[in-house]
Amino acid sequence: MTVTIKDIAETANVSIATVSRVLANKEGFYSEKTAAKVRQAAEKLGYRKNTAAVELVTQRSKVIGVIVSATKTNFANDIIAGIQDEAFKHNLSVIILYAGESDPNQQHRALQTVIERSVMGILILAIRPVDDDIAMLRAANIPHLFLSTSFDSQNLPFIASDDFRIGYQATDFLIKKGHKKIGIAAIDRHTYIGTQRVLGYQRAMADHDLPTKPAWIQDGHFTYDDGIEAMKTFGAKPELDAVIGTSDLAAIGVMNQAETFGLNVPTDLAIMSIDGTQMVKIVRPQITSVTQSFYEMGSRGMKMMLQRDMTKFESQYTPFRIDEREST
Amino acid sequence: MTVTIKDIAETANVSIATVSRVLANKEGFYSEKTAAKVRQAAEKLGYRKNTAAVELVTQRSKVIGVIVSATKTNFANDIIAGIQDEAFKHNLSVIILYAGESDPNQQHRALQTVIERSVMGILILAIRPVDDDIAMLRAANIPHLFLSTSFDSQNLPFIASDDFRIGYQATDFLIKKGHKKIGIAAIDRHTYIGTQRVLGYQRAMADHDLPTKPAWIQDGHFTYDDGIEAMKTFGAKPELDAVIGTSDLAAIGVMNQAETFGLNVPTDLAIMSIDGTQMVKIVRPQITSVTQSFYEMGSRGMKMMLQRDMTKFESQYTPFRIDEREST
DNA sequence: AAAAGCATTGTAAACGTTTACTTTTCGTGA
DNA sequence: TCACGAAAAGTAAACGTTTACAATGCTTTT
């Protein structure tokens, strides 16, 4: 039914080895005359390479697997764009698997899928797998790299922002603008990222001899609704004079709730977000953000994959900057 | 190096056929006693199935390929969620390939990749491939379906919204709110979707005996910036009393530019968007939208794939509704 | 004219599964 | 005890490539 190189070989009157060589452009192993015959036959028969066969015999695939959490925050698109552009340059395919929102089952299945496909590398976005899955990942012996998550222990390679510094500098920025009572909203302290940001925040406050209160730190999962909730807890007459939203959407949630309370941003309350995606520019007032280099995380991650030797993977931080806008 | 069923067979002291049957859960073909031995050996050796080998011999894969345009509009995530959830239920993997923003090269490569992987089905999101690629797609004899794009001719199967009706009803809604001079922003009339929406708009205007002007229709590609540009063209003292943005972001662009001009939304200018993603709820004022059923497009599309018989694919429209908010 | 070297092509094994077909084992009824 | 049938297990071919190695033919060197 389907056309194979064997059919081409017959049509072109050569051996399958020759066909294979021509089609794979193994230069120097065939004459142009034969090549022309082969290519023409392939074209005529409507030949399509069978990737499964190729991967089986070569024991490798030119595919990078990307596992993404289907979170409601939106930076993943930028990271993926970075991965994609870099992969395209090197003729690699990218397959993306969504792993739900912190659903361990889906995560496990996604991981299993890419491992069984023996992809040449695995990029894991903003997900911290359970220990069993990490063990599986290691056993699989496939280069893998975490993006936009960092770890304290485990020595897993990652490319991410330095979240302690993000927390510190965001806070420091607000303090230098004259704020003294600064809150932080929708932070997930079960994640390493979350703890680091809080630590950075606390250090900055301490460095400026500013007191903090536990109630100024509102837990959540970086979502819009968590931002709203956090602001509701801070109240209509908040003690605070500035709030850091731990994602763009969270910050927007804080801002909208603040305005519902009749507070003016930035005069009554300054707001700052962490991420700096398009979101912060389309709302009014535009939100001052710690802008992360998501695209770069993706392209750097992809480049690292190209070395293939995982032992050389070195965790690194991507730069971030503060973009001042109207909300501070 | 890697563990194969042959290794398991040796360890468990059975034939590879038995191993294969146990591991594939072909019930009725093995005794529980043997099964236990096999499973234990597999576990012990750290066996991983080789998908390439499976696909080669079975001539089929349990993978759905999804091709997405990496557009700056954001509804794709919802469609993908629908696809993903449905696929998960049926134990299928989903691989997603980004095809750039209307870059024919990337589209071609993405298509080629999924075809060569002989996926069991292809879902194409918001992309209208060039004719050559459509021919290739057909020749490949793989079930395929377009989501969120419709076609006049070609008889390609799709699941999308009825864009004529969207255009009509959005316009009709505004007219019934008392508006008479209605514009439409950031519409791409090179797409079928675009022409249909404009036709719907024009018909609604005509049905109410309202005149229109060519300048009221501003071309673009559904982006935020196109929304801004459109509004700039309409001017600081626009002739219009309402504008339809052809995506959420486009509508937000229109709104932000209108406010830059000092216009009040909705009193000076009513604004309406088409899509109805989270975006319209996080901006102030919240935007009245034609809300499409993106998630449903995804899950319906996936369900259709399950039939596998492409000749039975029937193009269909998913429902939409109008959600009134603060911008009208 | 034979030998050597090179370019080109061919042969066949290998990759890791699944599965049609065959063989063995085992329980049951006569 | 034996024949029979069902259950369990085994044998081997097949899937479509790549590639090491072998073979062929041609050109160049001696």
Automatic annotation (TrEMBL), chains A, B:
Signal sequence extent: none
Keywords from the named record: DNA-binding, Transcription, Transcription regulation
Pfam families from the UniProt entry: LacI, Peripla_BP_1
Top-level taxon of origin: Bacteria
InterPro entries per the UniProt record, alphabetical: HTH_LacI, Lambda_DNA-bd_dom_sf, Peripla_BP/Lac1_sug-bd_dom, Peripla_BP_I
GO terms, molecular function: DNA-binding transcription factor activity; transcription cis-regulatory region binding
Gene3D superfamilies: 3.40.50.2300, lambda repressor-like DNA-binding domains
Ranges for domain HTH lacI-type: 3-58
Listed name of the protein: LacI family transcriptional regulator
Organism: Secundilactobacillus collinoides
